[in-house]
Design goal:
With 94 residues, this protein is mainly beta. The protein has a single domain (4-89), classed as OB fold (Dihydrolipoamide Acetyltransferase, E2P). 11% of the residues lie in helices and 57% in strands.
């Protein structure tokens, strides 16, 4: 089984390939160490197919939080998540 669930912030603007069929969003995922004193951020590329990429690109901005369900793909030693489902997460600003 190849499934992954991620939650993170949009790190930069979406990028659509030359064919217009695929859009890549980059999520910043913060990883805490065991004692939660230090944290490290990594950027994970997430590939979206045409319709989903177009919709999210129009309604999103850098810093928005997303939850992604998808599968892991590794090509030429590059990791990418192929999105099946993407949800925006609204933050409570108190």
């Amino acid at each position: 089984m190849n499934q992954v669930l991620l939650m993170g912030r949009l790190a930069e603007q979406f990028r659509t390939d030359e064919s217009g069929l695929r859009t890549v969003m980059k999520l910043e995922i913060v990883r805490d160490d065991d004692n939660s004193v230090n944290s490290e951020a990594c950027i994970i590329p997430v590939m979206l197919w045409r319709g989903l990429g177009d919709i999210l690109q129009e309604k999103s901005q850098v810093g928005d939080v997303f939850a992604v369900k998808g599968s892991i793909s590794v090509t030429n030693d590059r990791l990418m998540i192929i999105a099946e489902r993407v949800s925006t997460i609204k933050e409570n600003k108190a």
